[in-house]
């Protein structure tokens, strides 16, 4: 079977993904492009006995190589050379969509235009003469309905290669491309055209990238000041025998970086010639029309599109003043007063459904793992192996899978909000607030999900940062969402509040939420001024018309993201979980201590008068033995060793161990604290007895509790979050950074509070 | 006809882009979204805190922050 590769490309919101889903159904894979966090979707389908590989390129408005998405799409098209580019064009929005189509044609790609949403265009009173459009553009144009894509695409494939469904083989591409798509040459006005021709000549003479792109396109990119092409041009000739005149690198295979651009020595004559042309043209345009080549080129592209559309391609018979349904919805949904109120309700509902509907499946999973643990408990003999399997493996895997229902529900509801177009409105309404802190309107969703309303979870929050398209704002959001109060931190707060501030519960819970928001936003601001500083990404965003999301789209979206989480997180987490278990178990009690406990046990059994007191005495002994093991373990020794530092924040070794345990999952703080205070394992759900015990423990006072709450709020996120965060940020470096920075930051705050409080006599 | 910056336009006011005074990334993004001299647009509304602004151009809705709208010079009726 011969297989051909088809790339789907187009503007965001043009129905590209809907078509992709309709074509490939379940036969798709999602991954990332190497080295970047842009999603790569591939799938296959067969038609008339032929196999097709489909790539869903990221949606872009242009191919200017400014955003990651644009770079990825452009590199894919240039390097992988798909057999056909199916350009999905929104019929109700031809003018802007064709801007991208023109760029594909200028790249010399075999393009077919799939006109989508003809029904919407119809409703708006726009009618399009498809044949005329096709002949004027010189490429096949076929109307499709993305939701049942195969029919339309079949017609596309046929129009591409005459009546036969056979595509021209890749080697004949040039010929094929010439037949179907004589490279459009738009005139960009005399001055630009002249410069283009000159540069084109130099490019051809030097064979600069001519194996990848048409020479005219390369020349155009020089005029458009394209970073990628300029960089390649600067490197051109270095490290080869093409005669690099650069004294610094002297052909030592070192490409001259952009920073050396200022030095003329570094430039190859090839680049110098082009640079001279660029300089002259820029000067000339500046002097005559106060413009620059980039702007002139864009003007002419739109001019070209308008001239095509005016030749009877589009006829409108509607009143422009008439409001569409979408506009009428916006009058309410983004209304000055009603808008924020409705948004509040919708966000609350999202939150409510995500965390409540997932409660039951979470409970089932808990039950399942509890049952598994119980079975292992009866099957294996007591000892280290049993402890490893139950506490290390089952609890670790259970910890990962326990998040799955949450993540599924979260992506389900977010997909609905995203596909319907509402998420863009949320960003629109809240941008002003978040911009103060160097963030973006779209940052709100991750913050809320992580526990902006107490009780969320950082893992879905971290994954929700994918909806942010601006890289710096996304990074700042990603690094600060773990400060929110997730559901696992709540038992810790409940415990401490119950133990020390019983009378002011509501006030303290409110303060806890308030402080975490304040901390997260201020740290975000700090990050945007330091490690991810830089101008804010322009908020030039489309508000797509409201649309009813397709069930299929939402489900595919939900499942593929959930599966990705299981795959990515599952592998690493098991290892860390086992490591933490080992830290809290080994090296075990020294022989004399172990003997001591054995002797005591024997004494108790011999001396106890009745069963009740025997049981009680044994239980007490077992608890103090567990405490001794913990104290003696590596974690316990670390906790003890850290005491000299941690005492500045008011933490003794017990708290230190509990906090180390909290790295596995925050609720572990409560249970570990229980063991360390020789209360036995304390159930995180019912911490009353521990609360009572704590309030009576010497050395514990309200100030200690406040210091501990602040520390818990801000210190290193649990390792599931760290793993997810590293994956989303694209590097483990960020995971390590988060652990170190957050812990130091939290410690600083805790010390500040404890010392200031102590001085004031609390 | 009079000239004003896009920031100063009222809701539902219409106008034609006269010039765009932005270069680099901002200029490119504006042009990619169809904001070029000669393009007609109208103001659709503003976010609850008066920023960003939503505008209608070429049949779709676009949002811009006020400080980005400053780069766009408009020619408006009346």
TrEMBL record, chain A:
GO cellular component, one term: plasma membrane
Binding site for Mg(2+) 1: 22
Transmembrane segments: 337-355, 392-417, 437-464, 476-501, 507-527, 569-589, 703-725, 734-756
Binding site for GTP 2: 35-39
Gene3D superfamilies xrefs: 1.10.287.1770, P-loop containing nucleotide triphosphate hydrolases
Binding site for Mg(2+) 2: 21, 24-25
Amino acids binding GTP 1: 10-17
Signal sequence annotation: none
PANTHER family, per database record: FE(2+) TRANSPORTER FEOB (PTHR43185:SF1), FERROUS IRON TRANSPORT PROTEIN B (PTHR43185)
NCBIfam families given in the database record: feoB, small_GTP
The name this protein goes by in its record: Ferrous iron transport protein B
Originating species: Desulfamplus magnetovallimortis
Gene name per UniProt: feoB
Automatic annotation (TrEMBL), chain B:
Domain Ferrous iron transporter FeoA-like: 4-76
Organism name: Desulfamplus magnetovallimortis
Pfam families, A to Z: FeoA
One MF term in the entry's GO annotations: transition metal ion binding
Name of the molecule in the record: Fe2+ transport system protein A
InterPro entries: Fe-transptr_FeoA-like, FeoA, FeoA_core_dom, Transcriptional_repressor_C
Superkingdom field: Bacteria
UniProt keyword annotation of Iron present: yes
UniProt keyword annotations, A-Z: Iron
């Amino acid at each position: 079977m011969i297989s051909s590769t088809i790339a789907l490309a187009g503007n965001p919101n043009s129905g590209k993904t809907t078509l992709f889903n309709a074509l490939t159904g379940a036969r798709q894979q999602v991954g990332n492009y190497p080295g970047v966090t842009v999603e790569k979707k591939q799938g296959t389908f067969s038609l008339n006995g032929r196999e097709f590989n489909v790539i869903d390129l990221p949606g872009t408005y242009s191919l200017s190589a400014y955003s990651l998405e644009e770079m990825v799409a452009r590199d894919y098209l240039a390097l992988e050379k798909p057999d056909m580019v199916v350009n999905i064009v929104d019929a109700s929005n031809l003018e802007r969509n064709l801007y991208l189509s023109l760029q594909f044609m200028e790249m010399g790609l075999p393009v077919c235009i799939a006109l989508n949403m003809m029904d919407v265009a119809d409703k708006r009173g726009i009618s399009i003469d498809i044949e005329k459009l096709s002949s004027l553009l010189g490429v096949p144009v076929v109307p499709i309905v993305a939701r049942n894509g195969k029919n339309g695409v079949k017609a596309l494939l046929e129009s591409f290669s005459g009546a036969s469904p056979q595509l021209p083989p890749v080697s004949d591409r040039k010929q094929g491309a010439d037949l179907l798509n004589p490279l459009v040459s738009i005139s960009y006005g005399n001055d630009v055209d002249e410069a283009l021709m000159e540069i084109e000549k130099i490019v051809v003479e030097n064979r600069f990238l001519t194996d990848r792109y048409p020479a005219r396109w390369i020349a155009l990119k020089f005029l458009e000041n394209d970073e990628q092409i300029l960089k390649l041009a600067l490197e051109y000739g270095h490290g080869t025998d093409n005669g690099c005149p650069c004294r610094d690198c002297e052909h030592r295979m070192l490409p001259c970086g952009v920073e050396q651009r200022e030095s003329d020595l570094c430039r190859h004559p090839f680049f110098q010639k082009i640079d001279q042309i660029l300089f002259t043209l820029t000067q000339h345009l500046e002097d005559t029309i106060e413009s620059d080549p980039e702007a002139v080129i864009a003007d002419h592209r739109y001019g070209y599109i308008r001239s095509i559309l005016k030749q009877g391609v589009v006829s409108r018979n509607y009143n422009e003043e008439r409001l569409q349904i979408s506009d009428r919805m916006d009058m309410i949904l983004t209304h000055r007063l009603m808008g924020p109120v409705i948004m509040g309700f919708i966000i609350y509902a999202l939150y409510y459904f995500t965390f409540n509907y997932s409660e039951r499946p979470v409970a089932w999973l808990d039950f399942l793992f509890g049952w598994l643990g119980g079975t292992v408990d009866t099957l294996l003999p007591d000892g280290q192996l049993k402890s490893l399997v139950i506490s290390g493996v089952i609890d670790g895997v259970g910890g990962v899978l326990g998040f799955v229902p949450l993540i599924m529900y979260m992506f389900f509801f977010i997909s609905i909000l995203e596909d319907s177009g509402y998420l863009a409105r949320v960003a629109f309404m809240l941008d002003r607030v978040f911009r103060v802190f160097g963030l973006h309107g779209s940052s709100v969703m991750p913050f809320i999900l992580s526990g902006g309303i107490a009780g969320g979870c950082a893992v879905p929050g971290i994954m929700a940062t994918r909806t942010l398209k601006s890289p710096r704002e996304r990074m700042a959001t990603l690094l600060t969402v773990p400060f929110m109060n997730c559901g696992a931190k709540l038992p810790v707060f409940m415990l401490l509040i119950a133990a020390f501030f019983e009378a002011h519960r509501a006030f303290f819970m409110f303060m806890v939420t308030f402080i975490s928001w304040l901390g997260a936003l201020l740290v975000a601001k700090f990050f945007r001024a330091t490690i991810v500083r830089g101008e804010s990404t322009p908020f030039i965003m489309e508000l797509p018309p409201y649309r009813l999301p397709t069930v299929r789209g939402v489900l595919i979206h939900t499942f593929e993201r959930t599966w990705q989480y299981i795959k990515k997180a599952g592998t690493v987490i098991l290892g860390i979980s086992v490591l933490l278990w080992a830290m809290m178990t080994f090296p075990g009690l020294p022989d004399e201590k172990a003997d001591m406990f054995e002797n005591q046990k024997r004494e108790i059994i011999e001396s106890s008068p009745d069963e009740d007191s025997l049981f009680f005495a044994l239980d007490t002994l077992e608890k103090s033995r567990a405490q001794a093991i913990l104290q003696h373990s590596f974690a316990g020794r670390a906790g003890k060793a850290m005491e000299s530092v941690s005492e500045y924040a008011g933490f003794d070794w017990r708290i230190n161990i509990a906090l180390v345990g909290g790295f596995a999952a925050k609720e572990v703080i409560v249970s570990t604290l229980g063991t360390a205070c020789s209360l036995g394992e304390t159930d995180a759900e019912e911490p009353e007895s521990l609360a009572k015990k704590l309030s009576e423990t010497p050395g514990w006072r309200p100030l200690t509790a406040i210091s501990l709450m602040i520390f818990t709020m801000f210190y290193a996120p649990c390792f599931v979050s760290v793993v997810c965060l590293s994956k989303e940020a694209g590097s483990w470096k960020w995971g390590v950074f988060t652990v170190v920075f957050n812990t130091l930051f939290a410690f600083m705050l805790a010390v500040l509070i404890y010392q200031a409080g102590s001085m004031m006599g609390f | 006809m009079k000239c004003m910056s896009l920031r100063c336009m009222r809701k539902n006011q219409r106008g034609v882009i006269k010039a765009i005074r932005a270069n680099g990334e901002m200029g490119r993004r504006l042009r990619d979204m169809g904001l070029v001299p000669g393009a007609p647009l109208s103001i659709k509304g503003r976010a609850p805190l008066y920023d960003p602004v939503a505008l209608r151009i070429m049949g779709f809705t676009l949002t811009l922050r006020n400080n980005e709208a400053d780069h766009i010079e408009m020619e408006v009726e009346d």
